[in-house]
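Batch job 17 of 40 flagged for manual review because the log was empty.
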Amino acid sequence: MGLNDTPAAGRVHIGFFGRRNAGKSSLVNAVTGQNLALVSPLKGTTTDPVYKAMELLPLGPVMIIDTPGIDDDGPLGALRVERTRQVLHKTDVAVLIVDAPGGKRQADEELIDIFRSRNIPYLLAYNKSDLLDHIPAPGAEEIYVSALGKYNIDALKEKIAALAAGTENKLQLVGDLINPADFVVLVTPIDKAAPKGRLILPQQQTIRDILEADAAAIVVKEFELRETLSHLAKKPKLVITDSQVFAKAAADTPADIPLTSFSILFARYKGMLEAAVKGIKEMERLEDGDLLLIAEGCTHHRQCDDIGSVKLPRWIRNYTGRQFQFAFTSGGEFPEDLSPYKLIIHCGGCMLNERAMKHRCQSALAQGIRITNYGILIAYMQGILRRSLAVFPHVLAELEE
């Protein structure tokens, strides 16, 4: 993607599923209008999920995902099926490709059951319909298409767009907390993990959201905050800081100016703020030797003082005075079995779409494992959690339960 493209997490994720040789890849190519996926008459040509960020009219920015056949067999086939199932965790709209001459099979019915159980909007696309003697009247969630003959492809895209319209994230990042003409000060240390010449994604998205609210964003480094605030003729509506400099930002921001962090804003935006606040209470119940999982939604080259793998473990040990074991995951990795962990500490999830982040949160809670967030944890350990949550009064009550 280019510098100004919509981030992957902000795109509607459209997953194409089905049995081997149902024509998934051919249909993906027909829908996208390009040779995105490798096509072959041999079963099992797609061996790994294929992702493609693109503009899909009439929908807009999307992430197209072509998956291996759900009926793959053998040891390698089982791994491919597992990867396909993992795609379901992040799928906003599912398109089930069915071989029209062969009809639905058990594997197709099992996928439909999964879509329904996870409340994933779905559509059945009967491919190779040009091979039928006649095309039956489709049901409400069905369409007959032909990737080879380009039959009904535009209609398919319109149906996908209609399903996707109801999946957009209704939450705002910061726009609902501010008014037009407000000032918002952003404290943004220059992150070594960010590409040279660029801000990291949470900072970019927050600035964009502020501008869309017709407010003004004032961006400073941590050592410039105190002086900047003293020179402003108008008090800012909010100060938003990188969690790594939370303590300094809190010390330099007058008590009558609301303060929070990018990570906390993203916890709310991804739908996990309440769970993260409840989860922080697990910190007081940790014991020596407990295993903690630190999970990040992105993959990057870890620096010598990386926040996830170095700083957080050090800060946690210093705060608790105890010794713990730590496990780390990044990107699309996230364990299905969370029972070994006493607590999960997750990043803000700026690289994960809302459904993927909610899946991780719900998986943890379903298995009785508490989950919290980088920003919540850092604010808690530095004694400023209540202040950082003051912009969300309804969430403060979670600390009292």
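Reviewer: the log was empty due to a logging misconfiguration, but the result itself is present. Residues 175-265 form a domain with the Rossmann fold fold (CATH 3.40.50.11420). Unflagging and moving on to job 18.
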